[in-house]
Amino acid sequence: MLSYTGGLVLVAALLHASWNAMLHGNRDRFLSMTWMSIAIAAVSTLIVLFVPWPTAAAWPYIVASGLVHIVYNVSLVRAYSSGDLGQAYPIARGSSPLLVTLGAALFAHEAIGPLHAFGIVMISGGIIALALQGQRVSRSGVLAALTTGATIALYTVIDGIGVRLSNGQALTYTAWMFLFYWLMPVLFVARRGLAALWTPVRAAPMAISSSLAGGLVSIAAYGIVIWAMQSGAMGTVSALRETSVVFAVLIGRVFLREAVSANRWLACIVVAAGAVCLGA
User: Fold this and answer.
1) What is the DSSP track for 189-201?
2) 267 by DSSP, 3-state: which?
3) In CA terms, which of 19, 42, 47, 254 is 20 to 30 Å from 212?
């Protein structure tokens, strides 16, 4: 039976799949990600006014993670411009749990039991199987998705170590790290101009609203993960979070009308079985 922490990480997985679906469902994903980032950064700016100052030991990790998250955002936008949600999302997420487990072992000296290791392998294998179903993904799409997966693993290990150096101040750590999301509108304006950022507020208010909502959901989703990594093994938390691909397939099928084959459903079952192993 899943622990309380494991249950919350599954909630985070659902939230994560939801904001990715919001991002993928918008026509201009760069614009959508930018407005998501504005929502994230704005809320984080308010939070840092009321939380303690981060510990000195956590600062290098806050800065490193914040910068890696920007690279992740850009890579995710590129991945979603090349494939549907049911393909690009699994490739991006499926490549990270094993990398996180390896990184945690090398840099945080974490060890996990055989059953949990088997669960991580099942989840990664099931996720990758999901990505291999259906129509082909372009080479550029695969490269962008794999790059996204590498950045996921990198910022997860950074945050896993950093939050443990924050003296239990997960909220402080998360808020300060998310302040770096102010860099996304800077990048957008540098590339497209200020008018391209503000004109859609009037021309497409629903798209902007959904992006802002997605940003708020994203804060909750990853905030739970950072909190969980204070005491939980990074590889286990990461793999459990990546069960979000199952939610992504369901959301893609129900709301985005993407086709789901029998093999994809089978892969989802493998992922779910891996989650059960992690909760044992």
Assistant:
1) HHHH-HHHHHHHH
2) helix
3) 254
Residue 245, judged by CB atoms within 10 A of its CB (0-12, 13-18, 19+), counts as buried
Note whether 5 and 183 are within 8 A (CB). Answer: no
Q: In which residue are the tokens 């990461």 written? A: 238
Listed as own residue / partner, the contacts of 255-264 with beta carbons closer than 8 Å and 24 or more positions apart are 255/21, 255/25, 256/21, 256/24, 256/25, 256/84, 256/85, 258/84, 258/85, 258/86, 259/134, 260/86, 261/133, 261/134, 263/129, 263/133, 264/86, 264/130, 264/133, 264/134
pTM: 0.81
Give whichever of 42-46, 123-127, 254-258 has the largest mean pLDDT. 42-46
| Whole-angstrom distance, CA of residue 220 vs CA of residue 182 | 18
Tokens 């950074």 -> residue: 158
Per the structure, the count of domains in the chain is 1
The DSSP output letter for 57 is G
CA 240 vs. chain centroid, Å, equals 12
How many other CB atoms are found less than 10 A from the CB of residue 233? Answer: 23
What is the rounded distance in angstroms from the CA atom of residue 260 to the CA atom of residue 270?
A: 15
Domain residue limits at 196:
4-279
Residue 169 sits at φ, ψ, to 5 deg, of -100, 65
Q: Encoding tokens for residue 30? A: 């760069």
- Any residues with CB less than 8 A from the CB of 237 and at least 6 apart, and which? 9, 160, 225, 228, 229
Q: Which two tokens stand for residue 45?
A: 């700016």
pLDDT tens digit sequence for 247-264: 777 777 777 677 777 787
DSSP one-letter code for 53? P
- Classify the phi-psi angles of 168: left when phi > 0, otherwise alpha if psi is within -120 to 50, otherwise beta: left
- Kindly report, residue by residue over 78-94, the tens digit of the pLDDT: 766 655 555 666 666 66
